[in-house]
Model the fold of this input.
Amino acid sequence: MSVRGPPAPCRARRLVNERSAGHWLHSWNPDGRTRLREARVEDDVREALQNVRVHRPDIEQRKRMLELSDEVGVQVTFLGFPVTSDSEREQCAELVAHIGDRKLRQTPALMARAVPTDLGPLLDIQQRTSVRIVADLYLSTSPIRARVEHWSVPDMLGRLADVARLAAAEDLDFRIAFEDSTRTPPDVLADCVKAALDVGARCIVLNDTAGDCLPAGAAAHTRFVAELIERSGAEAELAWHGHNDKGLALANSLAAIEAGADLISGTFTGLGERTGNLALEQLLVVLADAGNTQYDVSRLVEMCASVSAATRVPIPSHLPVVGADAFSTSTGTHATAVLKARALGADFEDVVYSAVSAVRLGRTQELLLGPNSSRPAVSAVLAELSLPGTDDDIDALLRYCKTHNSTLRTRDDVLGALLPTAAPERADSLGRTAVPSSRTGRN
Done:
């Protein structure tokens, strides 16, 4: 049985558009006319701060993070759990006030259990700040949680109804989050969704609390609840909150969107409990690629750097989108292709070996030198560093790279490799070109 591939672009089209890199790209991905174009996002700072390596940011750092996430285009920010302590309550109040004072577009969400006393701090904050907040009323629905905690789901639903009625009476918007919903049987989940809709929840939040789902499971779970909402006739939003225990947080979030989720919760750099959550910056790049115009991805690098500095959790160098090496290569064939693409234009350079546009993020493709480097790459790096690279210099530096096990990352690294092999007068010439250390690339 033969398998036929996609048709090649017609010659006439190439003659007209061949100067554009986009003309030469083919993708098997959907063309963007999907739910990805309308998806909204939530920055769950509360979740990020549960990571065991996080240093809790001070209030000014958190305010700056709020401002940056607003500039990115985040619609909802989950700030905290006010009932846990007086300091948490006051910090949440100050952050909500900051949203109002700066006229930020985000809706603040605050956590509360299905306990009437948990609503007190939220009502107080809303009254003090004159900013409408959303109460995130949560309860666990999975059998394993009920067994461990000796809970009864019907009893919890009864308490939830009481708290929801109290919230409605006090003009407090609320949503209902089902913890561990992805490990909850359909009959139990259906009862929970019906109870939430009956008490007027403006949003139902599905939680893959243990990171159990595969993408197909996330889609099935989301579709099941989306259909329940649709059949009820209620105008409730559907949200998805996923964890990354199996490394599938992004894939599951995309599956949830296509299956009916309107709002996706995540954290910048993926910080969260255990192995973390969906990395929002990765989702936002995918949404932008699909034609979603709600977000400014050029602010993602600064946003994630702010989170890293405030929490004192370094960004892994290989992290997609914002990692220091996300657009770096020292591999000979790859670097040579980047250089050839550069000669065709910046748009070719940006995509020949990258599915994510560095330029759109305010970054550039970066060539480094290492054991797999090629002669063209060595020559190009020397030129970028304004080092007078003779043929002997190029040969010497290439030999150095081939006989050492690490990558040359800075100008000083490159000079350190060249100087020991150069003739005295040549070493003196190279030495006079030295400037303070910097990365070898153009980022």
